[in-house]
């Protein structure tokens, strides 16, 4: 399959998958999961051509690893959401004190974000300049130097922010407060700082300032 057809098919499947998610319910979820699975098969088989790099480039492995991790991670999140919706964790909650359950909830949320932070933080600086994997912002996908700066910063931030995620887990901070401010703040810093710094760099580079 040519790169152009692969990109077109991936785009079409993305639209269908989003429509499935909007529809909701078991049918919509199933449709979304199928679309994502097919997209990833197409992407993994044609990853070098789609990314405009040679097949023997060692960074192809990095792209494949990042794509495979994304699929497994998203599948795990879907299964976790289904399990929570079915009340799978209610029995655990009954055996815990409110404080213990609060700690367990925060720990789960910390792990959910820490895992991609660690994995992507390690792989981001190694990702080749492309339009399909990585921090895809209007300015990062237009200039390779801007791309490199954004992904290096993302990599540097990953470890300290991962550690920061776990700081309040055993403290008395309320779960909702942790999610709304601490957890969300860490996520925004992880994405926002590389995005803003690289955006300023891109603007200065091409505005002549």
- Ends distance: 44 Å
The stretches of 5 or more residues where confidence is low (pLDDT under 50) are none
Rounded Rg:
20 Å
The number of helical elements comes to: 8
Average pLDDT for all residues: 83
**Shape descriptor:** globular
Percent of residues in helices comes to: over 70%
Number of domains: 2
The string of secondary-structure elements, in order, is HHHHHHHH
Main beta-sheet strand count, sense and barrel state: none
Q: What's the total count of β strands?
A: 0
Question: What is the strand content?
Answer: under 5%
> Which structural class is indicated by helix and strand composition?
mainly alpha
